[in-house]
Amino acid sequence: MPTTNPQNTPTLQIDHSPAYELLVSFFAYTRKTHHKSMDAGTPWIRETRKTLPPAFAARLDDLGSSISTLFHGFDFLIHQCPPEHRTTAAAFLTWAASLPVGDLFQLLAPYVDVPADIVSLRDQCVDLLHHWNAEYFQTLDPSILQALAADAEQKNTLLGTLPDMDVIELATNGVRYEVTPELRTILLVPQYHLRPISTMTKYNTSMSIYYSIDLPAPADGGPAPALLRLTKSLGEESRLRLLRFIGSGPDSTRSFTEVVQSAGLSMSTVHHHLMALRGAGLITAHGEGNVTYYTLRRDTVSRLSHDLLSYFLPDSAE
């Protein structure tokens, strides 16, 4: 069962800059393991690829699993960027490219292990992101960046009014983590391109968490993205059975291994179903060491009827 460690209180910092979304959009395109679980999915990948010069598209295809190593700790470099250089993605890249090796070590060392070839890695990252910004990101709808900034500001108002773990679970729509003695800093950042996925990257003494946000419901009367995601996630019998199994466990909690054994499905299929249920806010994922536990989020289930009635009968009284 998941546990908590109230004696260890790492610092939670909520941050936003267009440079974060530049990085996230780059990962959304290049990390193929995410494509199946993203709302934008394969159609966005196909349309974006059409806009890229063939040579650059091929270069991105060749990155493969090296992306994680290449961009190790890059989010904390964004976090350390001075305010005057973080208002645009281009401004951040210019600043990052100008940093001497000593400054790079000084900025990153408190958060991550800094590799000896940090200058070479920095140069490769900046070059890739410079081209990505020129070919894709600089034409992004400004309302997306405005929504990200507004959400980060709103989440910052919760600090001190809720326990940090509750702020993280609220932001991520169902992610909790094990507090380890060495953890000192948690960076919480809103993102759009990977929605509804929330990602967590652990370093030695720090962790970065990217949580997804949605834009407002379409003006044509379509359902809000969260409601559409929720109803879609319940459209498969296997997922309903998974929710029933999780809900029937002690404290409505089951480990990933227990869920796989019960489902009679492949591990990858179960993982995909759990990603969909987590993205819809129906389950909470608790990370504890190498074990992940899932808990039914009763509040989401209880709210479903109200949300459906509010959509079907928008003019009715509460």
UniProtKB/TrEMBL annotation:
Pfam families to which the protein is assigned, alphabetical: HTH_20
Entry keyword annotation includes Zinc-finger: no
Listed name of the protein: HTH arsR-type domain-containing protein
Domain HTH arsR-type stretches: 219-316
Key words of the record: DNA-binding, Transcription, Transcription regulation
GO MF annotation list: DNA binding; DNA-binding transcription factor activity
Classification via Gene3D superfamilies: Winged helix-like DNA-binding domain superfamily/Winged helix DNA-binding domain
